[in-house]
Design a protein that fits this description.
Oligomer: single chain
Distance between the termini: 31 Å
CATH superfamily of one domain: Glycosidases
CATH topology of one domain: TIM Barrel
Length: 784
């Protein structure tokens, strides 16, 4: 038997495939030859374990012991792995440790808990507060109040049915009248709206359909990770992407256990780093999934002065209050206050109960006599002031829950003596007031609540309210300071190469609000903010029915970025935008009249006659959009880290927020400059991995001349050179490159895309960028 090609322990590049019933393992297997030729070393698969039937994403796992049958089961995964190995490719798999689907009909472990209660051997799997709700697990599944739904709740043998949902009955309760039967269960079906305030299980953010899993328990870890760890041991899987570690009780301990169980295989974590935040040094992982790199790449193609001017135009056009979209910081704070008092009220109540119990039972008199309302207020005011997702056991919590935040929180209280509750809460978080089981539980729940709050308030609310520059409204971004200088970019890359050279980098993912190509187009507006304001003034003079001005501003930028008239896609994205923003309508309290106005505006505005003016404006900027698209792609593929290419993004890929960007994979058939550039960079990485890996180096290269600021260039290991054009519209307005030049390191260099072109010594950038606004050079006077 011919031995299979080896798979590198650290990927040179990964390619993300969104598995779903419409694109199962067999379809992925058919795509392997194409992806191998593209130049990646590993396929990056979305979750592969058994999920809710029909799930298009797989993050709603129902059975972690089985590979998903709808995708082809374990046999299908093995077939895919074998074909991949035949082509020299490995597999990286997305794992979901934080939650499972709260669907008893499909989740047999949860079914047993509902049937047997806390005595079930599966009860330890789920993060349930059995002391609340009179010992019943509250299930927010009813469409109306219980009294209005009794006719739809029926007993069928040993199960309770509610439309298509099925729940087990506690043994011996089948013949009871319905009211007594419901009281006798270990669960209580209730109106779905009670989830905000009454829920007694931890969930994923505020999604009640996903129940938190206690992987901190060694037995639960073994049970929920056993199948994937077995496939790792067998060599079918070669790396892991960990979904949402911030939701776990102890990410430090979990990642340490995973590292040992996975024998140190390449692992990245979906950790969203706030500006200036670093991944905990002790985490035994290669790095993040790459949102920090996305922020750097997008930022270096954003004009700082233009972004400021665009913000001024936005404020004049939309006139939003400071805390409702006018300024980034106040907008985040206002959103956090809303989320913690509304969507996360049940999490806040549970945390308040824990801290109240600690204070009431403490032997320290200083902790006594704190009213629950004061402790709740202190918790809320500290949580909304966190500027990162959460504290960790391995990081000084005082750097997260700062004294400055505490001082602001104290100022909320009108009675100074009651403000002492802030100090109590902060000292408990910092571990200054004991370290018993109750203290540890408080710190864990505080951190888990903090991460849910940050995600919901920033990712799912503030990013849809603060909209002067939509390309900056991205996970891990910094909309309040969207531009990154070349010096800042080089400093980031040097730090990554030194500390986490095998970390992930991304530009588009299944979770990005807009694909990289859409963001690249929108960021061009920072180079012509005045012209954009004029165009917007023209199209809004049409007299068409419009919703609020903030949405109008965001809608036209969305249309500009998408660059095509697809009313259904645009309407869907705009409706999601306004529901997430929560200013006029929400997912749970919809305003039909407002939503109708949004839909009408999409049809009659961007997708109607006024849209032609914006399309013409976009067409005129096409060369500069192209420069951004190609520049961002090349930088991501050659900067420090392991690039992940989201399905389809090797070619032109204009997608809006999910589900628009989560369709089945389709190979890129049409040749394009971006596709050629992507393949060339990926193949170079695969052919010369030592130039990009842990032992490689990263050297900034500075251009010389009047337009030097418009060139971003760096060298990898003295053998590969990346040079791209940044802010090309500003460059063109200044008259072009003139005599700006780049001094190449010693030796002869060939253009990877056009090997007949060779360079040496000092070269004029006008000559380097004659065909494309980017260049990828490889030194050719060495032994390779």
């Amino acid at each position: 038997m011919t031995p299979l090609p080896p798979v590198p322990a650290v990927p040179t590049a990964t390619y993300r495939l969104q598995l779903q019933p419409q694109f199962p393992f067999g379809a992925a297997r058919a795509a392997v030859p194409y992806l191998a030729a593209l130049g990646v070393s590993h396929l990056h698969l979305s979750p592969v374990l058994e999920a809710v039937p029909g799930s298009a994403h797989g993050y709603d796992v129902v059975d972690p012991a089985r590979v998903r049958e709808e995708l082809g089961g374990e046999a299908g995964l093995r077939s895919l792995a074998h074909t991949a190995r035949e082509h020299g490719l490995g597999l990286v798999v997305d794992i979901v440790p934080n939650h499972m689907a709260a669907s008893p009909r499909h989740n047999r472990a949860l079914w047993e808990v509902l049937r047997e209660g806390p005595a079930s051997p599966y009860a330890r799997w789920f993060d349930i507060d059995w002391e609340a709700q009179d010992g019943q697990l509250l299930l927010p599944v009813l469409g109306r109040r219980l009294g209005e739904e009794t006719g739809d709740l029926t007993v069928d043998g040993d199960v309770l049915r509610y439309h298509e949902q099925v729940f087990p009955l506690r043994e011996g309760t089948e013949s009871l009248p319905l009211p007594q039967l419901l009281d006798a269960q270990w669960y209580r079906p209730v109106w779905w709206r009670l989830a905000r305030t009454e829920l007694n299980y931890r969930r994923f953010f505020s999604i009640s359909e996903l129940i938190g899993v206690r992987v901190e328990d060694p037995e639960v870890f073994a049970a929920t990770h056993g199948t994937l760890l077995r496939l790792l041991d067998e060599g079918l899987i070669h790396g892991l992407r960990v979904d949402h570690p911030d939701g776990l009780a102890d990410p430090d301990a979990y990642l340490g256990r995973l590292y040992e169980a996975a024998s140190g295989r390449w692992t990245v974590v979906e950790k969203i780093l706030a500006p200036g935040e670093r991944l905990p040094a002790g985490w035994p992982v290669a790095g993040t999934t790459g949102y920090d790199a996305l922020r750097q790449v997008d930022g270096v193609f954003t004009d700082a002065a233009g972004a400021d001017e665009l913000l001024d135009h936005y404020r004049r056009f939309a006139a939003p209050p400071d805390d409702l979209g006018g300024r980034w910081g106040p907008t985040v704070r206002r959103a956090a206050h809303e989320v913690i008092t509304q969507e996360l009220a049940t999490e806040t109540d549970r945390l308040t109960r824990v801290v109240s119990r600690l204070c009431a039972t403490s032997p320290d008199p200083a902790l006594r006599d704190h009213a629950p309302w004061a402790l709740r207020t202190a918790l809320r005011e500290l949580l909304v002031r966190l500027e990162v997702y959460r504290p960790y056991a391995s990081v000084d919590a005082a750097t997260v829950v700062t004294e400055e935040a505490a001082a602001e929180a104290r100022a909320v209280f009108t009675v100074p003596e009651e403000a002492h509750a802030v100090d109590v809460v902060r000292d408990l978080v910092l571990g200054r007031l004991g370290d018993g089981p109750g203290h540890a539980e408080f710190r864990v729940r505080f951190a888990q609540t903090a991460s849910a709050l940050r995600a919901k308030s920033v990712e799912d609310r503030a990013l849809y309210r603060y909209v002067p520059l939509l390309s900056a409204d991205e996970v891990g971004g910094d909309p309040g300071d969207p531009a990154v200088s070349p010096e800042g970019f080089h400093a980031h890359c040097a730090r990554v190469q030194r500390d986490r050279p095998a970390t992930g980098t991304v530009l588009s993912t299944h979770d990005t609000k807009r694909s990289a190509d859409v963001r690249a187009a929108i960021s061009v507006l920072t180079q012509c903010p005045g012209r954009w304001a004029e165009v917007l003034a023209e199209v809004t003079r049409s007299g068409a029915r419009t919703p609020d001005p903030q949405l109008v501003w965001a809608a036209w930028q969305t249309f500009f970025g998408l660059g095509c008239t697809d009313e259904a896609r645009l309407r869907s994205a705009l409706l999601k935008h306004v529901r997430e923003a929560g200013l006029h309508t929400t997912w749970t309290e919809r305003d039909p009249g407002y939503e109708e106005a949004v839909a009408d505006f999409a049809a009659g505005g961007p997708c109607g006659a006024p849209g032609r003016l914006v399309r013409g404006f976009r067409d005129a900027l096409a060369p500069h959009i192209r420069a951004n698209v190609l520049g961002a792609a090349l930088v991501q593929l050659t900067m420090p880290g392991v690039p992940d290419v989201y399905q389809g993004t090797e070619g032109e890929y204009r997608a809006l927020v999910d589900p628009d960007n989560r369709g089945p994979f389709a190979p890129q058939e049409a040749a394009s400059d971006k596709a050629a550039l992507t393949a060339a960079a990926l193949r170079l990485r695969r052919r010369r991995p030592e130039l990009f890996g842990a032992s490689a180096d990263y050297t900034p290269l500075m251009a010389e001349g009047p337009a030097a600021a418009h060139c971003l260039a760096f060298v990898r290991s003295a053998r590969v050179l990346t040079a791209v054009t940044r802010l090309s519209l500003r460059l063109a307005e200044a008259g072009g490159w003139h005599d700006t030049s780049l001094v190449l390191p010693g030796g002869r260099w060939a253009d990877v895309l056009a090997p007949d072109r060779e360079f040496e010594g000092r070269i004029r950038l006008a000559d380097l960028f004659t065909r494309l606004p980017v260049a990828l050079l490889e030194r050719i006077d060495d032994a390779h």
